[in-house]
Specification:
The protein is about 75% helix and about 0% strand.
Length: about 300
Amino acid sequence: MAHYNILLILVLALSLKAELPSNLESVPKVFSGLNHILNEEYDLAKQNLDFFRKKNPNSPLGDILFAGALIFEREHNHDFLEAKQIDSLLYIAQDSCEALINRNPDDFWNNYFLALTKTYQTYWKLFKSNYLDGFADGFYALNYFEKCLQIDSTFVEAKVVIGNYQYWSSVKTESLHWLPFIEDRRETGLTSLELALSEKFLHRDFALISLCYAYINEERYLASQKIASDLQKKYPNSSKIKSILARTYTNIEPQKAIKLYKELIKKYQIENLENPYKLIELKIRLAKVFYQNEKYDEVLLLCDEV
């Protein structure tokens, strides 16, 4: 799970500003496509976003979001199929965005679309364990989000993205905070991340998912449980949200955690028989819950299966 927490540093950039450029067609397909991603309905997500992409061949947004749907599907299944297609879509989008910025460097949308492109490249490269290039892209993404905030100071998503980065980067460098040039920005970052609780922006749900992980890290389990329970009502098919609930209940109601982990294991046994990674991870987490509650026979059984 540490690997996934690294990915969380920039994943909030996958939110969208509520208003999109007026010259785009079929904008509702964008919103429905992203909702399908959160609900892990990837075929429907790709269908909607590919339709939008083909309707707007001159905009990089279609390539960016369609690549995003493929990336999230790969992350869900933990495989690297369609890697060339993802790389191609993102490089095409990057070239298009950079050309637009060269023509108008102070345009909000030009900077926003390049920030999104760099964010998806970050997520994809970190997923493939290409950390050096991934964090380099992440740095550029943050710079472009900061430029968006300079252009439009009311852009809440940028504040949340930057806060998310500040929080998780501080968590990951905690052992180095004694150095004068490494600042602990955890509290500042969490405050910005908590804007998702009160501010209304289109994909605040991405922010709320990351906030749940932050609350778990801060041992604020009831706060995480409340948010995750509300999200589960909206996205009942999401194994990611169910996993958050399981992690939260591990510390407050272990029997509920056991039930949720068993449900997740059953789901992945049906969906991902050819890839044991998720099953192994879930069984290890379930074994830890059993161990914490002194159910050692169940621990041994799961360890044998793994």
